[in-house]
Amino acid sequence: MTQQPAPNPWLDRAALAWAALVAVALFAVFRDAGFDDPFITYRYAANLAGGAGFVYNPGERVLSTTAPLYALALAPIAAAGLSLPLASNLIGCLSLGAGALALWRLGRMGGQVVAGAVAALLFPLSPFLVPTLGAETIIFITLALWGFVAAWAGRPILAALAMACATLTRADAAMAMAMAGLVLLVRRGWRPALRYGAVCGLAVAPFLLASWWYFGAPLPATLGAKRSQAHVPGSRGYLEGLLAHLGAVAAQPLFWPTVGLAPVGVAVAALRGGPLALVVAWGLLHALAYSLIGVTSYFWYYAPAFTGLLAAVALGAELLAGWLGRWAGRRAGLAVVAALTLVTLAGHLGVLRASALAPYPRLALYREAGAWLRANSTPGARVGSFEIGVIGFYSERPMVDFAGLIQPDVARIFDAGGDYADAARYAIERYRPTYLVSQERILALVGDDPGLRARCAEAAALPDPRYPEPLRIYRCSWP
User: Which of 15, 109, 177, 356 might form a disulfide with 163, Cβ 3.0–4.6 angstroms?
Assistant: First the structure.
């Protein structure tokens, strides 16, 4: 067993200062960032706080948020009248700092101080994590990392609570939960492992049973919808997207240290083990599981895999520092690793700067559409759209989702070989929304359908210089 080095208060304080500094800096830059999917979770929280129940559309018990525990945690914030998007971005930035501290602890616990430092420096500025701000992604990853810390330290109750919260925040953490139990079994024996398993079960099972009773299923409907979306002609699957992301990383010179060190780190993890090896293994298992599940490619799905990649880079840096230290002296080895880390950080900051300068383009436009609908429609008027998160949150109207996230039957159109236009036509005919929100240049709903042209009249056109045509809102009349 690797002996944990004696604590160094200066290094611990430096890690804490870095975590706090980066969290504050990220919130200052990305406080208004966001994308559509997290607003589905926000609406569950807002509806619960407002007395409409734990639902997206009042009266429709469908579990469409992938973050049920996070939605419950946000409900008091909504009840207090605070901004959910702003609060969620703050929680995400703080979680990035907390995740950096967890990685530092994992490295230090395994006697791999250099690896812990490199991982802590790279994690909170990862271009595969920061763009997910607003969603539950960073929160569940950080909870899982602290679960690994507790498991390695032989604290089964804390490990179980962290992993249960991570899994209820997003089910992806279930693999990490199992890995932590295995760590306790191998390192501490049966009793701590059984205690861990019992607490995990007591924490997770009641929620699963409650979900089964309330929603009719313990898993989010979005999982099936996004598997179905992979069948849409021209859609890109998870593995194809992962390879594309890796290719983009390899093509940028500032990320070449990542390309060189990561395979070395994977080998170190496999041969030497250690607490950071858990993060590498989880990243690899997560990527394998998502590839086998067959979901379509969404950028936030890759965050756990790239967290594992960063841990591998850190382990590769530790080996390089040791090898160079034996050949050219400890200071020379540390200097080279520091230089490579700074190069990688420069690459991360370059990508993040581009993200800050070019945020999610439809966020403001969808917010404007939601505000228009709230001001110009009756509370019960149904609204149909391809992306329903932001529009639904700000309009506070029942939504019809053409992608099948909140009406699961719509997603079956994809299983039958249909495309998004087919799904939209089915959803419109089936649910007959009073309003349609459409960017006709991207996919004409009304313009190409004589029946809809006869029933739906343009009620508003919301221009945006980034799009060739306005976002149009149609009002439809049905018999």
Answer: 177
